[in-house]
Amino acid sequence: xxxxxxxxxMASPRGFCAGVDRAILIVERALERFGRPxxxxxxxxHNARVVxxxxxxxxxxxxxxxxxPQDAPVVFSAHGVARSVVDEAHDRSMLFLDATCPLxxxxxxxxQGHHEAGRHVMLIGHAxxxxxxxxxxxxxxxxxxxxxxxxxVRTVAVPKDKTLAYATQTTLSVDETAEIIxxxxxxxxxxxxxxxxxxxxxxxxxxxxxxxxxxxxDYFLVLGAPSSSNSSRLVETAQRAxxxxxxxxxDAGEIDWxxxxxxxxxxxxxxxxxxxxxxxxxxxxxxxxxxxxIQEVSGASENVTxxxxxMLEA
Length: 314
Fold this sequence. Notes:
The chain has 314 residues and is of the alpha/beta class. It folds into three domains: 4-16 and 201-298, Cobalt-precorrin-4 Transmethylase, domain 1 (3-Layer(aba) Sandwich); 18-98, Rossmann fold (3-Layer(aba) Sandwich); 102-198, 4-hydroxy-3-methylbut-2-enyl diphosphate reductase, catalytic domain (Cobalt-precorrin-4 Transmethylase, domain 1). It contains ten helices and twelve strands. It has a five-stranded parallel sheet, with helices on both faces. A four-stranded parallel sheet has the order 3-2-4-5. Helix 8 (201-214) runs parallel beside helix 9. The chain is flat. It starts with a strand and ends in a 16-residue tail after the last strand. The mean pLDDT is 96.
């Protein structure tokens, strides 16, 4: 009996972005320079495979700085940290390396600039996400208000004596965020926005690639962690663009093979914190069960790189 034919559409770009590449490299270089162990506050990026690989290399992941020995190096995750975390590291004279994505730092600096100018900042983002916690932690309590939905915009109370500005989490849905921004501008016509959008290039490019492919797919697999905001947004993007059967999986072991019976065109992408090896493993698993034809669907070209901390430069 011949195998079911299946066309596999591979989104490009997909997987690691420059900020994730930089964060992982910082941990790897720190291990080379300082030896084992190197401590990392929170997951360096939201991916279990990446974390496990770094743990095998000698990284120890912790929740807070009080778990780090005084004389051990510690790395802050790519999502960014509140100023209180940096202050604590300074107060303890700790050797710390900041792996915060430079594009997240850009949002931090913008928020600080608005605060110094006397503005109240509205942050569009997801409550509890590490990036949001870090961004809100750049300003004194009460100086920033989080909004997650259009309904939040309609009901949120803001200081009446301050000009408003807004910023966004870098890994949001481009379409949904545009709707929330429009709602903010409608309710607060004088609100000030960033000169360039805060959603990062990698998030935007991956969503555009998925949006372009989705209507041509019967089913869509996105590789990424459930805790990864940008990966979850890719699933939502595929669904909104016409592929209702879009799901998030962490690896090939989570594929429900019965759900792929009878489909002819399968889309695949990966979030910005998902390594390409996960995609490769899915393709190999598909090859064992189907007669596959792979089509690369090319999108934006990415050549962004970010510098390492000075102490780790070769």
